[in-house]
Amino acid sequence: MSKLGDLGARLHRGEVGYDFIGNRKIWYGLSILITITAIVALAVRGLNMGIEFQGGAVFTTPKSEVSVSQAQEYAEEASGHDAIVQQLGNGSLRIQVGGLDTAQSDKVRTELAKDLNVAEDKIAAELVGPSWGEQIATKAWTGLGIFMILVVIYLAIAFEWRMAIAALIALIHDLTITVGIYSLVGFEVTVGTVIGLLTILGYSLYDTVVVFDSLKEQTKDITKQTRFTYSELANRSINGTLVRSINTTVVALLPVAGLLFIGGGVLGAGMLNDISLSLFVGLAAGAYSSIFIATPLVADLKEREPAIRALKKRIMAKRAGAAAKGESYDGSDDRSDDDGEIAVVGPRASRRGRSSEHRG
Description:
By secondary structure, the protein is of the alpha+beta class.
């Protein structure tokens, strides 16, 4: 077995582990700080909306020796508007200029042909109206709202409402961070970005549901024992699925990183930048939130229940009593008999059958 596999087995058995739940205030504080930064960036810098959302013209030129910066200068002089220029993989240029109508688009195309020293009919021009982008945005928001409602309903039925609320908060957390990163780095928001944002929601939930399923299994009949509190079992669930979460996240991030850093950065593959950044940030944020946000939130909400709170008090009292006697309490005096009832036996006693017989 590999070292990682051995570590995963030991984490699953509870032999080793990190106290994620005990340090939840650190994770909450970190997430709040990142979220506030994202919101401030959105308020101050806003989003660099693509041509699909603000309207304008897109010009695609043949391969040219003109640099990206020089082409941008030509486009801005010809149009009087800000321009965005990308070099595509085959050496051609994609020039976006917002706020142009048909007549202005034809004029800019003519000027670009002169400046770039290419035939005018070799420059492809596409005019995009802002209404199309508005329709896409409206449908995306509608789909997002319906998706979140269905997620809450499903998780409330399959697990419980506390887990549904925690998963919803984690989703909002992931979306806020991803959109904030877009604002900070100034990447253009296109239809590809919207597709990427909607895609990461499912992956974010995948990791969260894996941990929730383990937690649901471990906390079954939790009040019939006095060995672990709910938070401790939640921590064991995170540790038990930790290696699996890391493996799936790394495997998912590798091809996305290829799209972002090689396809988008090296080859200049246009829309790959837009969709790959949202996927990369969203996948990483989803893995983070399922471990550091969603499950700790469930533990906080669950331990507000009277029965779970009373269980914690009993466990803490027994541990304090054992500590006062110089002993370590591990809950070994709580064992279930064959009828599922709790039988109290001595810490060194062994269980044989349904009860112990006293022999003279």
